[in-house]
Task: structure prediction
Amino acid sequence: MTRQTDSKYYLKALKNILRKGKDSQSALCDIASKLGLNFGVIGCDETLLFGTINEGFQSFSLSLDDVVYGRLLTSNGDGRLLANMLMVLVEKELEKKKIGNEVLGLYREINMIYSFSEMISEKIDEKSIAEMALREASQIINSTHGLFLIYEPKQNKVVELASFGLNPEKEKNIHKLNVLLKELISRGTSAIVPSNKIINNPALKHLKTIMYAPLKVKHRTLGMVILGNSEEKEFTAAELKLLTTISLQSAGALETAHLYQKGLQEAKEREEAIRSIHEVSQKFVPNEFIKSLGKDRLTEVSLGDLVEKEVTVLFADIREFTTISENLNPEDNFLFINSFNKRMGPIVRKNDGFIMQYLGDGFMALFPNGSQTALRASVEMHSELRIFNEERAVKERFPIKLGIGMQNGNLIMGITGDIERLDAAIISDTVNTASRIEGLSKHYGSSILLTDNCKNNLTHPEEFDFRYLGPVQVKGKQKPIDLYECINGDNEQLSKHKLATLKTFEEGMKQYFMKEFAMAAVTFQQIVKKERNDSAAKLFLNRSAHMITQETGDDWKGIATISSK
Amino acid sequence: MGQKLLIVDDEAHIRMLIEQTLEDLEDEGVELLFAENGEEALNLIKEEEPNLVFLDVMMPKMNGMEVCQIVKKELNLAHVYIILLTAKGQEVDRQKGLDMGADRYMTKPFDPDEMLAVAEEILKV
Result:
């Protein structure tokens, strides 16, 4: 402090005593009256602070350490005592002020730490904690450089989280001195490193003094905070204490941040697990099914949910599966089925259908968009099967045959079961019929069979070619169903043949239903002669031949009754 | 006429801290007054009608809230600017204090620089 500021400071204390200190005032007045004198006090700024002054008053200077801050003027020469007393009071007042200032300084620190801990506890990421700690430290502790380091157990390395102050070699030095820093951190102590100790350290050549404090949580040390000063000024113990406090608060915040991140990570993993369960559950219960019920996810579905819809039900079945499976062990059987299903599933989905159920040697699929999509899928499935069979042929495996049957109609989709065991179920006569039609495809030797209902539902029937196979009395149904064969699912040779003989076949059918059985037999014979693999033509050739010798009443309508499934 | 500032707190060290904080105001002719409980504060306010009061909430013999309510609602001393002081974490009192007519609200530990700035702003010195 300069003499001038000193005198101002002392004057202030003098003013406090004369203006506010009622006890001091009365003591002064008491003594003055006992001494029988009048007095006045003038500050070093020449203002009258107390009493009155007359000409001829004697002056006694008021001073501390040779710094004059005022004068006491008295009506006679006995004023020295009074002046001395006033100076003692001023000294006392100054002491009080000094303590007051120290307390205020401590209070400032408390306030700073209070608001710092409040602010830092809101931070949830390491970097901003580190930055805030350094910012706060640099504000209250005179420093030119700062470094916030943490130990990364995964990398077994000390890394920087934040820093301030220019040091182009900082990163290089952190790398070079990593072992030393690790050692310092593991010690978990704080210290001021005086200039004579750092003078020989090339990494600290830009600094005159440093101090560091650990980032401690309970018994673990997460890292350290280092402050440095390039000016010739040692850090004080009080400053180290402050840095330690800031570090302690930061360590707590870091720990909370870690826990928070951990919690977040765990929540993410849980969510991921739930998501994958959801995904898997979608594979077991088709999402389309759930959507049809007006629900977003499986968990929203409850017992009794149901919806009625018109759909195309498709059954696909591997022919002679029992014979195939007899020659395979259970594992190979499964592999075989899966290799087949793997190829068919995508075709169903591509055509907006979904597989409702796998049935061992086949599956049931639903096509909410109607038979156009179902029939497209059927044709594609057959052509995919041909590719599959070619691949199998290379491995000297027998070819697979596939029969598809479909029916259109209303269907109730719903959730059935009991409270403990739920299942997605469909209840419909359409399903039974579709299954029976698929069964008939064996009988007629057709790759794809469909009902008139299905055919009428086609939006673009011209995409396909059909042969009418007449009415069939299906078991469990009252009315016969008109049956059609879609020939586009056959191999190239067979479908070409069927297309070429389409008119002849129609003619044969007409003759058959007109009871001109001999004519029909001849017509079908022509077709069979061209292609021995035309099963339907063969079937009607046999039927016609059989009917020649049969009596037919007026009610004969050529309805086929097939007892075998 | 010189302005008056009243500091009310039952804890002597807090009174001293505030005095220390606001000391510079004395150079501007502001007179600092002190009271150590609600009753004393109320009497001083009636007598001196200070321009600004730093009023602690938690005090024996009539708490700060009551003093504030009497000053503002009963005595209608609207020109006595009252700043309530409460411990951090007791912010629930904030609205209650403002409802009692307090002009402002500060938490303890207070920021000395902020306190001085606020006093200077209100007293326009």
About this structure: Chain A touches chain B through 16 residues (CB under 8 Å).
